[in-house]
Specification:
Length: 176
């Protein structure tokens, strides 16, 4: 790889890291080619882009980004074979990896995950990451909570309206 090619690769990785607030660092190195293709298809179906990278290029790209993002903790995970999983949904890669490993074995291994400036290091964090709620799930939960009091109020008004109508009918019958 020439110096110009490395510079272009670093810029491309830097742009990908800037564009995604969630990414995972994984190792799928010992998977046979057909299983790697199957993994890529499963990831693609969920809108996740898998990119095999050279560790030094990934590190240089991360080093060029603002230091307040705290990428330094990820540097230790950039050893051995590395694939970066870029996603727009925080828990999607963890769910795909967990499901894939359920069928296929112990790979891919989660090395680290970057979720909105929080860093999770180690394969033992896979279960925790798979249980994170996505932005859509959180919005749904908030809407449900907001609708609940309104539904209770409307329900109360409906039942109260029937009681008022019954009382008025009874009073009308007494007067007659």
């Amino acid at each position: 790889m020439t110096k110009n090619e490395k510079g272009a690769a670093i810029e491309q990785l830097k742009a990908a890291f800037e564009a995604n607030e969630f990414f995972y660092v994984a190792d799928a190195s010992t998977l046979p080619a057909d299983k790697t293709t199957e993994l890529r298809r499963a990831l693609h179906a969920k809108g996740i882009k898998m990119q095999v990278v050279k560790n030094t290029l990934a590190r240089k790209a991360l080093e060029q980004l603002p230091s307040e993002n705290n990428y330094a903790e990820i540097f230790e995970s950039l050893k051995g074979a590395t694939a970066i999983l870029f996603t727009e949904t925080a828990n999607a890669p963890a769910k795909v990896i967990k499901e894939f490993r359920g069928k296929e074995g112990e790979r891919p291994i989660l090395k680290a995950a970057y979720i909105s400036s929080s860093i999770y290091v180690g394969d033992d964090k896979l279960e925790l990451l798979s249980k994170l709620k996505s932005r859509e799930e959180l919005v749904s939960d908030v809407l449900t909570l907001l609708q609940s009091p309104m539904q209770n109020l409307l329900s109360g008004l409906k039942s109260g309206g029937a009681q008022v109508a019954g009382l008025l009918k009874t009073l009308e019958e007494r007067e007659a």
